[in-house]
Known about the structure:
Number of domains: 1
Order of helices and strands: HHH
Largest sheet: none
CATH superfamily: Potassium Channel Kv1.1, Chain A
Amino acid sequence: MFRSGMRESVACSVDLQGLEPKVFDDVLQFIYTGSTHISSDTVESLLEAAVMLQIRCLQDKCESFLKKQIGMCLCSGRNGIWCK
Length: 84
C-alpha cells in the first residue's frame, strides 16, 4: 500500500482500523526486538494484526502458540482451545 500509489503512500498518517493500541505496541516490540509476549489473552488479536500487516514471522509464532494450546487440551482430555 505504501509503494503502489495508494493514498497511504502520500498521506501523513495511516489509520489502522481495528487495531488496538496495546496490540500495536506488541507488534512494534516484535518488529524492533524480534520477540513479544504471546498469551492466550493476546494471541488472537496478535495473529489478526500479523495477518493484516503481513508480518509472517509473527504470524508463525502465534500459530505455533495456538498449536501448543490445542495439543495441551487434547492431551488433557479437554475439548476446546482455551483450556484453563
